[in-house]
Each structure stands twice: as C-alpha cells, then as structure tokens.
Specification:
two-stranded antiparallel ribbon, Lipocalin, 1 helix, mainly beta, disordered N terminus, single chain
C-alpha cells in the first residue's frame, strides 16, 4: 500500500514538473512583489525575447521608459531566456535583472519566484500571472544615476526618443 502511495505521489510530481517545463513564458504578463519592501511591479515576456515592465502603485503601472534610439522598430532593449523551469529577465536601461524559476502544479497556478537585482538592491520576488494589463500611468524617467524618479522632478534626464515598455502583447 505504501509503495502504491509513493508511486502515485511520484507520478503527480513528475506531471507537475513536466507541466512547468512545457510552459513557455512568451506572451505572458506577471505582477511581482519584492520581499524587501513589499513594493510591486509588473513584468512581461514578449514573444521573440523582448521584455517590458513597470512599477505598480495605486492601481496603475508606471512603465519603465527606455532609450529607443539604440533599437530597431519592434525591438526591445532587454531580453529574456527560458530553459525548462529556469528563466532570466534582463532590462539593462533600468539596470534590472531577474533570475528565477517557475513553480506550481499547473498552468493556472504557476508562480514565478526568484531574485531581482538592480543597481541599488537585491530582493527575493514572487510573481503571479495577470490575464490583462493594469491601467497604465505615466512612465518613469531614467535619471543619470539609474534610479527611478517621477516625471515631475527636475533631476532626471529623459532619453529621447523613448518608448514605453508595456504594450499589448500579440501573444496574449
């Protein structure tokens, strides 16, 4: 009896791992929470390898703005990679890198967990899938020292031409 129970558990765990292994992040949108300060942000994995995101506060997302002068139309300055359950999401204009993995028993309950590393801090993160993009607010200016600031402040430098990092994904 114990052997049958262990075999059944092994099969279930194997199926869960294969579901997570077969889940592609392409075209997906996630809301993440930092363990360090409980702040929230949104990230997306565009088909073709591009990334986007923004800080989430008061029910809206302030998209990360990037320098579009170094990209061709349809390209993004960041990239993502996925190998099985492991992924890397990299947004160089904002000095943000996320490394993590997929976990969960099935496609509807999958979570992303990992570590966000930015120019000033490192934090564990947990992300849940979003079915649609939250309300878009104003973008965040990239100041000279790569810290986020509001558009109303004077000490930042907006890189022109700039594109926003959150657009409706064709893969959703």
């Amino acid at each position: 009896m114990r052997g049958i129970l262990l075999a059944a558990i092994g099969i279930v765990l194997g199926l869960a791992a294969s579901l997570a292994d077969s889940l592609s992040l392409a075209g997906s949108l996630w809301q993440c929470t930092r363990a360090s300060d409980r702040s929230q942000f949104v990230i997306t994995f565009y088909p073709g390898g591009g990334v986007g995101g923004g800080e989430f506060e008061n029910g809206e997302v302030s998209p990360y703005i990037f320098d579009a002068s170094r990209t061709k139309p349809g390209e993004w300055p960041g990239r993502w990679k996925q190998t099985g359950q492991r992924f890397t999401w990299d947004f160089p204009d904002q000095s943000i890198r996320i490394e993590g993995s997929l976990s969960g028993p099935g496609p509807t309950t999958v979570r992303l967990t990992g570590t966000e590393t930015s120019s000033e801090e490192r934090s564990a993160i947990t992300c849940t899938a979003l079915s649609k993009l939250p309300k878009i607010g104003e973008g965040l200016v990239i100041p000279k020292n790569n810290h986020f600031i509001d558009l109303d402040q004077d000490d930042g430098e907006l890189k022109v031409p700039a594109g926003i990092s959150l657009q409706e994904s064709e893969g959703q």
